[in-house]
Amino acid sequence: MTWDTWLAFFLACWLISLSPGAGAIASMSSGLNFGFRRGYWNAIGLQLALVLQIAVVAAGVGALLAASELAFALIKWFGVLYLLYLGWKQWIAPPSALATEPVDLRRGRPLALVLRGFVVNASNPKAIVFILAVLPQFLDTSRPLLAQYLLMTLTMVAVDLVVMAGYTGLAARVLKLLREPGQQRLLNRVFGGLFGVAASLLATLKQAAH
């Protein structure tokens, strides 16, 4: 991969990561509920799923998944149901008592947040199709592919970690400004609604013609 090609891919990664999606909503929700330091574990889960998706595409399995209507539908509807579940949990979440520690840490164990982020990203078949469509455009087939896939994986993960840190930190900062239970309840319902919107958008996703 040449420097110019990598730079174009690097810029594309920023555009992809900054575009609002289920991962961004999950990151903001985690920052809102658990603060930045604990909520950022969600972003680690998002990246683990991203690495898995790139590996699937690199192994050639992505093409099979993209072509299989049943696999596409199963992954999609699992993702829809999971996003709706997250939205419902956020909607009914009680206002948190803001103190030095904004949340009960037992509610946000790192492993649970990593798993949550992983499921959010892994259950989106659009990601597999998108990676399958985009990554090959930047590959130089005359050079070793493994090294190029590793470089692109590191680039995508690094950029997404920075962007999700921004989303998580923004929500965590907003949390500190909310002192009234009514304000916190309203924000919980806004995020619950956003999860519902993400689920609705995922439900309308259609498999690419093949």
Mean pLDDT: 80
Number of helices: 9
Topology order in helix (H) and strand (E) letters: HHHHHHHHH
Number of domains: 2
Residue share in helices?
A: over 70%
Strand count, sense and closure of the main sheet? none
What is the molecular shape? globular
Distance between the termini: 29 Å
User: What portion of the residues fall into strands of 2 or more residues?
Assistant: under 5%
Give the C-alpha Rg: 18 Å
Q: How many distinct beta strands?
A: 0
SS content category:
mainly alpha
| Poorly predicted runs | 97-106
Pfam family, one: LysE
Organism: Malikia spinosa
Keywords: Cell membrane, Membrane, Transmembrane, Transmembrane helix
Membrane topology: Multi-pass membrane protein
Put the structure in a nutshell.
This protein has 210 residues and is mainly alpha-helical. 77% of the residues lie in helices and 0% in strands. The longest helix is centred in the C-terminal third of the chain and has 33 residues, at 145-177.
What does this structure look like?
The protein is mainly alpha-helical and 210 residues long. The chain has 2 domains: 3-177, no CATH class; 181-209. It is 77% helix and 0% strand. The protein is built from 9 helices and no strands. Mean pLDDT is 80; it is low at 97-106. It is found in: Cell membrane. Its main location: membrane. It comes from Malikia spinosa. Belongs to the Rht family. GO terms for molecular function: homoserine transmembrane transporter activity.
Which features characterize this protein?
single chain, 210 residues, mainly alpha, 9 helices, globular, LeuE-type, homoserine transmembrane transporter activity, membrane
